Amino acid sequence: MSPIAVPVNPPTYSIACMPADGIGPEVISAGVEVLKTLANASGDFSLEFEDYDWSSETYKQTGRYIPEGGLESLKKHDAILFGAVGAPDVPDHISLWGLRLAICQPLQQYANVRPTKIFRGTQSPLRNANTGDLDWVIVRENSEGEYAGHGGRSHIGQAWETATEVSIFTRHAVERIIRFAFEVAQKRPRKQLTVVTKSNAQRNGMVLWDEVAAELSKEFPDVTMDKMLVDAMTCRMVLKPESLDTIVATNLHADILSDLAAALAGSIGIAPTSNLDPTRTNPSMFEPIHGSAFDITGQGIANPVATFWTAAEMLSWLGEEAAAQRLLTCVESVCERGVVTRDLGGTANTKEVTEAVCEEIRSSFKKPKQVS
């Protein structure tokens, strides 16, 4: 007698939803709508969202971004979907350290991963770059380095006022991020890693990076590693984008290079970010990198594509790779049809792009499967 098949309940993932500031609420609501459409159409998983109203408005009303016990509350979730932080009437160093970094560092989300590629239907400002020519993953150290928070100011208001910003590079953190980058490169078809430093001028921390990269390269003989100074790297990204694949750099250097990468791909409005705890001890946080963009807040024209790609990265991290790939394919199909916001040269608004992607998702499940 054949064994009786026991139905398996699809997994349910708990998502902390934190729109925060500026266009964050607009793009996160679009992302949630797309994710719900995908989950409902698929039936392979479900999502539960819990809203966290932590923002600059919260800070102005209460004096803090994160309430007492807030981080512990986040730990009960499988992932965090984050919008953007920053407001015109709150100094940037207060908003960044009050919310985003106040989550990333305590939750040990030490690997910041920023994929970049030229979407079908979008155009790079590089005249010779086509779809496929620019397809990178930038891995950014996310826990220390230039953003370690060490330093201070003294003699404030005097002519000899002094400010120090101390970069911290520990072998432990450098080794774990470079090892992570090698593992990312190893899983990609080209198996290529470029290590970016500024070791000719910064002869301590950056030389440590170079030495650790050289040591770890012996553990990954199938990955081709090369090394670049950060200033030369900007030239290479513009002039020879096809020569790059996976890139690893410090907190500051990768922050700058990933914004350049997004612009070279066509718009910062399509670029995603994953703040990962590779040990999976804590939930990881996923966010578009475009910031709060108060100049267009409330106009309904924000590009939601970065949030959609971010949502796909989140699904992949949760183990739903097929759903993640379907979502990204649907987003590219919509872009290819010309349904894009004005930063990509189109006329569509946030709602129109979102509706188009939702419809593309529903339609993708109605298409007959190809028989090989």
UniProtKB/TrEMBL annotation:
Superkingdom of this protein's organism: Eukaryota
Keywords carried by this UniProt record: Magnesium, Manganese, Metal-binding, NAD, Oxidoreductase
Reaction catalysis annotation: (R)-malate + NAD(+) = pyruvate + CO2 + NADH
GO molecular function annotations of the record: D-malate dehydrogenase (decarboxylating) (NAD+) activity; magnesium ion binding; NAD binding
Cofactor list: Mn(2+); Mg(2+)
Keyword Metal-binding annotated: yes
A Pfam family it matches: Iso_dh
Record-annotated Isopropylmalate dehydrogenase-like domain positions: 14-357
EC number: 1.1.1.83
InterPro entries for this protein: ICDH/IPMDH (IPR050501), IsoCit/isopropylmalate_DH_CS (IPR019818), IsoPropMal-DH-like_dom (IPR024084), TTC_DH (IPR011829)
NCBIfam families: TTC
Family of this protein: Belongs to the isocitrate and isopropylmalate dehydrogenases family.
Protein name stated in the entry: D-malate dehydrogenase (decarboxylating)
